[in-house]
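Re: the pair you flagged

First of the two:
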Amino acid sequence: MAKCFFIPMTTPREQIYSALLTVLQSALLSPAGPFKTVGRRWQDPSQLSPADRPALYQVQKDELAKTSNINSIPITWRATVDLVLYSTGDTSPATIPSTELNSLLDAVEAAIKSAAPGLAQSLGGKVSHCRIEGKIEIVENVQGAMALAVVPVEILLTA
């Protein structure tokens, strides 16, 4: 009879997602950073007041376990998170919505990089790496003058 068992992640999920949020808040939340809102509870753009923008929301997306037929090789976990960014939404006809969004994207990229050049962002040693990975979706003119970006973040760890 074959036995099936579940091997959990080495670090509890909530600690990982909380660590990422802490990294983002410390680097990006006003007054130190450009965002007025950084959180995990996604808000529809129609629910955002101008006083809450620009805003960034960390949204859990999925997890993938990669296993091996060899028992001694640990499971590799790949978790993905979307960072949803909304710009301020200047209504001036001379304003290009993506101009502000580009500087917000640069700030997010810098926040996720490790403080030590050449080393992976490990969220305080909780994961192997945490980095932007994949296509960044950009939409201009959301709810009038706002711009939106969805930044995919990959988190890798072994069990």
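Second of the two:
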Amino acid sequence: MFQRRPRKFRRRSNGRGGMHHGNGNAQNRMRSSSFSNIQIKNNFRTPLSAEKLFEKYTSLAKEAMSSGDKTLSENYLQHADHFMRIIEDKNKNQNKPANDLAKPNESEKIYLIIAELIKKTIQKIKFNLVFCAN
């Protein structure tokens, strides 16, 4: 049968946990905390709002464009476009009128104007990317 050869180096853990020899109490601590009322913070979600993330990625796209990295700029613009769609969906769901005859108020008008300006700005930046590539 196949026999494993002993390793000549120590294996690193990569921060993934795994079985640790001599620390058998760690598993008991994990089990006991899983039934407690302590809420564990979700580290995978960003604490920033969609508006802040949109601003972040548009500014990163401008910086990448000014440094000459067109691919990175396009990547950031795609992220900004994603968050712009999230903002639009959020505002569309929040601002549904009770009846179809309701007129948009001043803040809704301002938001629509700003949204159109942002879309035009993104289109201009994308056009500049294509124009500079040629």
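The chain has a mean pLDDT of 76.

-B.
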